[in-house]
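Need tokens for this chain, all 125 residues.
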Amino acid sequence: MIRALLLIGVGSFVGGVARYLVSRGMHMWLGSSLPWGTLTVNVLGCLILGALYGLFERGAVMDHDMRLALTVGLCGGFTTFSTFVHENYRLLFDGNILAGIGYPVLSLALGLLAAYLGHLIVKII
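Here are the structure tokens for all 125 residues:
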């Protein structure tokens, strides 16, 4: 368990630093008309996570702790959006269409509501 946590921590560190560098680079390259850095990180994270899970489906490519380090650690530190998208992919791929549509809609609606409430709470206090 300790080994897994340390590997996840190292992966999170690398992913977080990479997210910052990619986001900053995209902002410098394309400007700030849209959050290009976040978009790039999210799409790239989805590609990486999809490739990792595709690799894992081929068989025992690496041990469980290394899988956690790369998925939860590296990809999680890079972007949690990739996990969100992969969860939706699995729901749809497994034929759970209602949940595959409802989960992202509910996530976006509740996320926007929570962000609004967070801003409102700070303004009131």
